[in-house]
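In this supplementary section we document a worked example of the pipeline. Step one takes a protein sequence of length 223 as its only input; no multiple sequence alignment statistics are reported here. Step two produces a three-dimensional model, which step three serialises into structure tokens for compact storage. The input and output of this example are shown verbatim.
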Amino acid sequence: MNIAQFIDHTILKPTTTLAEIEKVCEEALEYGFAAVCVPPYYVRDASQVLEKRKVKLATVIGFPFGYSHYKAKRKEIKEAIKDGAEELDMVMNIAAFKSNDMAYLEKEIEEITNVIKENGCVLKVIIESGVLTNDEIIKCCELYKHFPVDYMKTSTGYADKGASVEAIEIMRKHLPSSIQIKASGGIRTYEFARQLVDAGATRLGCSAGVAIVNGEKVSEGGY
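The serialised model returned by step three reads:
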């Protein structure tokens, strides 16, 4: 399996430098990764390095906790698209979900998907599966399957628990085929990456993409 084609080469730590952004972009081009995922502050810089080549440019919205107002998220998305982002990884409002405010979440996703589709971009909704029960993951699937979401994504990488095979299997079972799945958080080996793909993931968010492709050992920590 060419695992590189599934990987969103990711750098989202708050101390990220421009030199590091340039490095991950060059690595993505060299290894043939699906995309790079960078902080919103660096989208314009990454766009200049990638120059609309085959590697897609992604950024995060409402990151990492998701509880900013959907109007703020909508503004973030518009600015990111203006700067060159093609894919937007948005954290759902987990606080609203835990409070069972489904009406708010429906309004949020309606507002966000309207902006996304107007601009022909890709939306990945991060549900932070590591802080949800299996029933709550299913509830997320039941909500988002009614909207034009491109991917459901497991994690931000900032919760104690990241991607799991079990979460991917649940999502794949309860989502329509039109919605793909992105696994992220704690993916540090080729073996685990392969397991996630076999379970149904079609994208992998990894800060250790190069090491995974090269079969190198990766230390704990990171996205």
